[in-house]
Amino acid sequence: MSRKIITGFFILTLALVAIGLLTAFSSPADLTSEKYHLKLVRLTTGLENPWGMAFLPDGAILISERPGRLRILKKDQLSEPLTGLPPIARRGQGGLLDVVLHPDFATNKRVYFSYAAADSSGIGTEVAFAELKNTQLENLTVIFRMQPKSFSGHHFGSRLVFDNQNYLYITLGDRGDKKRAQTPDDHAGSVIRLHDDGTIPKDNPFINQPGWSAEKFDLGHRNMQGATLHPETGELWTHEHGPQGGDEINIIKPGRNYGWPVITYGVNYGIGTKIGEGTSKAGMEQPLYYWAPSIAPSGMTFYTGDKFPAWKGNLLVGALKDQMLVRLELSGQKIVHEERFLQGEIGRIRDVQQGPDGYIYILTDEKDGELYRLEPLT
Question: Which of 155, 187, 221, 241 is catalytic?
Answer without folding.
Answer: 155
